[in-house]
Amino acid sequence: MQKLLKMLESNDSTSQPHNINQVQRNTPGEKQGNLSWIIDTGATDHVTHEKNHFITFYKIKLISVRLPNNSLVTAAHAGTIQFSKEFVIFNVLYIPDFAFNLIFVQRLTKDLNCILTFSPEFCQIQDSSTLRMIGHANVYKGLYYLQCSPIFNQDFVPSIVLSYKHVDVDLWHYRLGHPGQKTIEQLCRNFPYIQIHSKTVCDICHYAKQHKLSYNHSASHSDNCFDLIHCDIWGPVSIPSVHGHKYFLTIVDDHSRHTWAFLMNAKSQTRELLQNFVVKIKA
After folding, report:
1. Structural domains in the chain plus CATH codes
2. Type and span of the H or E element at 15
3. Nearest CA among 238, 225, 224, 236 for reference residue 263
4. Torsion angles phi and psi, residue 125, rounded to 5
5. pLDDT tens-digit map of 93-108
6. Among 226, 237, 218, which Cα is nearest to 274's?
7. CA distance 91 to 117
């Protein structure tokens, strides 16, 4: 197994190496699995060994992580952990062989847009825009321990492991009852493994917003052009055209099915357009 890991590490030379800072236990007989989280500046990722800390849990591409004893382990899963409404960390690696829970400072400041203030006795985590304190850590034996615990369920066992390669946003769009674009974008920001496609069009959303069903097929058919014409006004549209048009008039010849479309700024232009159309046809 060690030889295989070394081969994988040598083949993946372009990727950024992952490691865990040199954190050691000095207290003899201290039980493994401390639930405290350590604010760490030397790691490259958030790390936990407790599966029930996660509120979301998914499969990722195998990552080789170097432990403090210089051994290599692989992380195959990651997820999201929530401490409070304002304090949520993403892409936390799950490594059951490690005995600590670490919070990587650089990724924390990037994800939460927060400010960390260190002193000899404590560390304050503040929101950069409001300066509201969202987290607090106390110093114990040279380490900064976060003074809050994750919101988790003791009975939580992830039964569905999602693939790291691609999770189609359409699946969650259907599951959540076809929410709007803003909701989908917020979903993708909170769960990075869900990918959104800007060109995706949901036909069900368009059908659901129709005010009327399609017209039935007509059995009548005119013998000559312009014996019968069909006119309809559509609008107003929520976003006007470049020239300010909010309506359009359609004229369909019953015999040839030829269709004319005229853009309008207001419905009052319909009378003039119909008169001009009749004059044009008679000419």
Report:
1. 2-146 (2.40.70.10), 167-208 (no CATH), 229-282 (3.30.420.10)
2. none
3. 236
4. -110, 115
5. 998 888 888 999 988 9
6. 226
7. 23
